[in-house]
Amino acid sequence: MRRANFVAGALALAAVATLAGAGGQAPQQQPAVPAPAAPTESQAHAQQILRRMAAFLAGAPRFSVNVASNYDVLQVSGQKIEFGERRSLVVQRPDRLRVDTARSDGAHTSAVFTGAEMVLVDATRKVYASTAQPGGLDQAIVHFVSDLGMRFPLAMMLVSRLPAELERRVRSIDYVERSDLFGVPTHHLAARGDTVDFQVWVRDDDAHPLPLRVVLTYKDEPGQPEFRAQFSDWNLEPAITAMTFQPSIPAGAQKVLFEAQLAAARAAGQGRKP
């Protein structure tokens, strides 16, 4: 079965094309875009809840959480197959992160940002890669995803600029309902973006407005696949020790390059004169 590569697969990033006038011609006048309608009371309420959640997560100095997720992969036949994984995350701002992952096929990986370096370990294949960590958590996550080409679902939820990112990406949002399906009261919100729509269930707690479930729909992708994540065991005061952000490298593990580093090394080698 075709599945996403969680160890060293490149993340497909959507590029935004800018149209410009060609050949010295004056650019054609674009039709006026009507001003967006004023949000309804329900929409304004949903926006307020989302902003409160984003500000709370961005301002949390440390936390840990478990995430059970699954995602669709479109097969050549047109059938969508669901794969899954479990993650345990520990965040300590400004520059520490640990993510331990168990995939549905039995593979176990971990990613650790120590503040000085970023280490990715594949315990199943007994290989690991490391590189210098550029700055704090926000910069490190961008480098990990954009420069090293690593897949990191929901990485945006860990960065301190989450409120600004949501403001930039969300085109509309609606309040669906108040739900008790997760054992505590939650607000069910549905938002739309240019390429991704999402739903989020936010705990109805002004002091701790934590997300309990997220569903992403990639509406421009063939088959409109979904990514679904359930959050549990939120801890805003996790017990952090010196070992928390110490990479767990198996005995006999081989050090390798990140795929993006390997591609760059190959390109540099091809460019050298014989």
From TrEMBL:
Residues 1-22 form the signal peptide. The lineage of its organism: Bacteria, Pseudomonadati, Pseudomonadota, Betaproteobacteria, Burkholderiales. Keywords: Signal. It comes from the Bacteria. This is DUF2092 domain-containing protein. InterPro entries: DUF2092. Pfam families: DUF2092 (PF09865). Residues 24-43 are annotated as: Disordered.
